[in-house]
Design a protein that fits this description.
13% strand, 2 domains, eight-stranded parallel barrel, TIM Barrel, alpha/beta, two-stranded antiparallel sheet
Length: 411
């Protein structure tokens, strides 16, 4: 795709598009700080796969990764490094086969995850923490201790050949003093390659998110990535707003799976409205979309009324929900209670991406005796196998049967 027009009428590119000329009024663009280059980091194979019920097999992941590479996507996040042996193998194979795009994995802020990342030979680890005080204190004891451990992990990754993105889940709902305490020391001492500011619940209005990105850029010299969700229908607008505030890397997802920022919308928006030459080949977008739709078997994401909005499968989320299980929607109702549009506050479902606390929550919901850690792990392995073999969620009936077998007939 050639560079968008930048002449006297930048809103009109013959043979391509024509948008509102008011987007190019000097007053509209006066305070924008668009970087000279914007990197596209696609998360289809990780956050896209976290769409409830979606299972990408290794060969499907590789086909999608090669298609993304062919399109000119600069970075491909191939999956969570510790989810399964198949995911690790897929990442390691991608690292060997993908030559023109940087392959990344997603990891928890744990030494064992970072060791797996090194072992896989991917180029980058996207290392996550949750920017919420009670979670930080529950894991590390204090913000200061958290920063110390993150610095060690960043240095470990870099010393072993990894680039490291420090990914702060829930950034857009965290207080500024918390963000300062866990960003500035890590940036100054750990020197991560990038810092990702994340609108996890899709709850930031675009100008507000741009303001937040601008604040972080005042604190640190580290390049900023942005990862935005679509719960309120703003993912594309919020991502573009973040770029106008100087964000150098944007996270995208084919078909906007699971409520991520859609790849096609972000690329077209960057090119047409922000005049960013992404270098991405857009002509194959429809074929790429169709392939991912076929492999994922996922419905299109629709805020508020979509069938997947209140479902939670991912184990990382259920750990937090377990701690708040006596609150409305396990504490997630405070973000957006889907009961107001006729849905459920939250619906815990079981599948490939579930964790031990997913099992605990399902048992607790049903009023069943809670399994031990060992029993929950046995159940989880069986649930993951069913989900991976059949590319779907595990039914309530299947869960009850597995539970009864493991618990010796109880339930």
């Amino acid at each position: 795709m050639s560079s968008p027009g930048t002449g006297e009428t930048p809103w009109k590119v013959p043979g391509k598009w024509s948008v509102s000329p008011y987007c190019f009024e000097p007053e509209v663009r006066a305070n924008w700080k668009i970087p000279p280059q914007v990197t596209i980091h696609d998360v289809t194979l990780r956050d896209g796969e976290q769409t409830p019920g979606v299972v990408f097999r290794k060969e499907e992941k590789l086909k999608i990764a090669h298609a993304l590479e062919e399109a000119g996507i600069q970075r491909i996040e191939g999956g969570m490094i510790a989810t399964s042996e198949e995911d690790f193998d897929a990442l390691a194979t991608m690292a060997k086969e993908i030559k023109n795009s940087e392959v990344a994995c997603f990891s928890r802020a744990r030494r064992d995850d970072m060791e797996l990342a090194v072992k896989s030979k991917v180029k980058r680890a996207v290392m996550e923490i949750t920017a919420q005080d009670h979670i930080i204190k529950g894991i590390w004891g204090s913000r200061g201790k958290a920063a110390e451990e993150i610095i060690k992990l960043v240095k470990f990754g870099q010393e072993n050949g990894l680039k490291v993105t420090y990914f702060l889940m829930e950034s857009s709902r965290a207080s500024l003093d918390l963000l300062r305490d866990i960003i500035i020391p890590v940036a100054e001492e750990g020197k991560p390659d990038h810092i990702a500011i994340v609108d996890t619940r899709g709850s930031a209005y675009p100008p507000a998110f741009a303001w937040l990105v601008a604040q972080v850029k005042k604190w640190v010299k580290v390049p900023i990535e942005i990862h935005c969700h679509n719960n309120w229908g703003f993912a594309t607008a919020t991502t573009l707003a973040g770029v106008t505030a100087g964000a150098e890397v944007v996270h995208t997802c084919v078909n906007g799976m699971g409520g991520n920022a859609p790849l096609d919308e972000i690329i077209m928006g960057l090119e047409a409205f922000l005049l960013v030459n992404t270098g991405v080949k857009t002509e194959g977008f429809r074929q790429l979309s169709a392939m991912v739709k076929d492999f994922s078997r996922a419905e299109w994401y629709k805020p508020f009324v979509g069938p997947l909005t209140s479902q939670v499968e991912v184990g990382i989320a259920t750990r937090q929900m377990w701690d708040r299980r006596n609150e409305l929607g396990y504490g997630r109702g405070e973000v957006l209670n889907y009961e107001i549009v006729g849905g459920k506050a939250i619906d815990v479902v079981l599948g490939k991406k579930s964790g031990r606390y997913s099992i605990m929550l399902k048992a607790w919901e049903a009023g069943l005796p809670l399994p031990s850690e060992e029993q929950a792990s046995i159940m989880l392995n069986q649930i993951k196998k069913i989900s991976e073999d059949n590319k779907r969620l595990v039914s309530e009936e299947e869960f009850r049967k597995i539970y009864s077998q493991v618990m010796g007939g109880k339930g």
